[in-house]
Design goal:
The chain is an alpha/beta fold. The chain has four helices and 40 strands. Helix content is 16%, strand content 29%. The longest helix has 20 residues.
Length: 346
C-alpha cells in the first residue's frame, strides 16, 4: 500500500518540507535508502547520510537544519524516533493476524480462552488457565495450571509459563522465555549438602511488558517476583526470586538482578550488567554496560559505570588514569632505582 508524505505527516503531526505528494510503500535505513521508501534521522552521527540517501521521505526532529540541499522530502516532528515507532506499529497492526486453534494441541476442560485466540500446534494449556481476548499463543508453548494471561498478549514459540503465574494485558514474550521457574534457593546442612527450598510463590507481570528471547523470571520463594507495567527486558536476562523491577525500566541483554532486590522505575541498564541480592536501586538510575551494583543506590537519576558501579564521570577519569598505569609503574621503578643509588652514594 502506498502512502503520500502528506498522509504520513498527518498521522504523526509533522511539517512537510518538499514534495507532499511523493509516495512510499516500504521502509529503509537512511544509509541504504531506496526510492519509494521512508527512513528517519534521530542520531546525529547519521546526519551525513541524509544528503545522499535515495529514500523518498525522511523523518527528522524539528531542530534539524540542513547544511546543504536534501533531495528527499522531509517531515519534521517533535521526536523522529518515536514517530517512526508509531508508524511501524501502525503498519504491524495492519498485517493479518492468525486466529483459531491448530491441532494437535491440548486445552484442559477447565481452561477459559477469550475471543479471537490463536493457539498454535503442540501448545499446552493446563487446568484452570484463563486467557484473555485476542491472545496469540505460538506452537510448542506451555502454560501451566492456574495461569492468568490478559488481553492482546503474544507468546511466541517455545515460551514456558509455570503454574500460578499472572501476566497482564498487551505483553509480549519472545521465543524461549521462561516465567516461573524455581528460584535458586538451597540450604546447606551439617554435611555441606544442599537441600532444596520449595519455591511456593509466583511471578506477576503487569501490563505492557516485553520479555526477550530466552529470558528467565524465577518464581518467588514466597509472595511474588514482580515486573511492573512497561518493563522491557532484552534477550538472556534473568530476574531472580522475589525481585521487583519498577515500571518502564529497561534492561539490555545478558544482565541479571539477584534475589529480593528492588529496581526503581524508569531505570536503564546496559548489557552484561548485574545487581546483587537484597538491594534497592533508586528511580531513574542509568547503569553502563559491564557494570555491577554491589550496594544500595539512593540517588535518583544517577549515572553509574564500573564494578562496583560508581559515578560515570568519575569512572571516565579513573579509566584515563588506568590506561596510564603501566607508564606510572615504570616511573615509580625508575624513581626507586634513583633513590637506591642516592642512598648507596652516601
Amino acid at each position: 500500500m502506498n502512502f503520500s508524505a502528506k498522509q504520513i505527516a498527518e498521522l504523526i503531526n509533522g511539517e512537510i518540507v518538499g514534495d507532499q505528494d511523493v509516495t512510499v510503500n516500504n521502509v529503509s535505513k537512511i544509509e541504504d535508502g531506496q526510492p519509494g521508501t521512508i527512513t528517519f534521522l534521530a542520531n546525529p552521527k547519521y546526519t551525513k547520510f541524509i544528503y545522499d540517501t535515495k529514500a523518498s521521505v525522511v523523518i527528522v526532529n524539528n531542530d534539524f537544519v540542513p547544511e546543504r540541499e536534501v533531495q528527499a522530502t522531509i517531515v519534521k516532528v517533535e521526536n523522529a524516533y518515536s514517530s517512526v515507532a508509531k508508524l511501524m506499529q501502525m503498519y504491524n497492526d495492519s498485517k493479518p493476524r492468525k486466529t483459531g486453534v491448530e491441532q494437535p494441541s491440548f486445552i484442559a476442560d477447565t481452561a477459559k480462552v477469550g475471543e479471537f485466540p490463536y493457539i498454535g500446534a503442540f501448545a499446552y494449556l493446563g487446568e484452570n488457565v484463563t486467557i484473555g481476548n485476542n491472545v496469540s499463543i505460538y506452537p510448542n508453548t506451555f502454560i501451566g495450571d492456574n495461569v492468568t494471561i490478559g488481553d492482546n498478549c503474544i507468546l511466541y514459540a517455545g515460551v514456558k509459563i509455570y503454574h500460578d503465574c499472572v501476566i497482564g494485558n498487551k505483553c509480549i514474550l519472545h521465543a524461549g522465555a521462561v516465567v516461573g521457574s524455581d528460584g535458586f534457593g538451597f540450604a546447606p546442612d551439617e554435611n555441606n549438602e544442599y537441600t532444596k527450598i520449595p519455591q511456593v510463590g509466583n511471578v506477576v507481570i503487569e501490563d505492557n511488558c516485553e520479555l526477550g528471547a530466552n529470558t528467565a523470571l524465577d518464581r518467588a520463594t514466597m509472595g511474588s517476583t514482580v515486573l511492573k507495567k512497561g518493563v522491557k527486558l532484552d534477550n538472556f536476562v534473568q530476574i531472580a526470586h522475589n525481585a521487583e523491577i519498577g515500571e518502564n525500566t529497561v534492561i539490555a541483554a545478558m544482565s541479571g538482578v539477584a534475589g529480593s532486590s528492588t529496581v526503581g522505575k524508569n531505570c536503564m541498564f546496559g548489557g552484561h550488567t548485574g545487581v546483587i541480592g537484597h538491594l534497592k536501586v533508586a528511580d531513574g538510575v542509568k547503569l553502563g554496560a559491564y557494570s555491577g551494583i554491589a550496594g544500595n543506590i539512593k540517588k535518583e537519576g544517577a549515572t553509574l559505570r564500573g564494578t562496583p558501579a560508581f559515578d560515570a564521570s568519575q569512572f571516565a577519569r579513573s579509566w584515563v588514569n588506568l590506561k596510564k598505569l603501566p607508564d606510572l609503574v615504570n616511573q615509580v621503578r625508575e624513581l626507586q632505582k634513583e633513590i637506591k643509588e642516592l642512598k648507596g652514594g652516601e
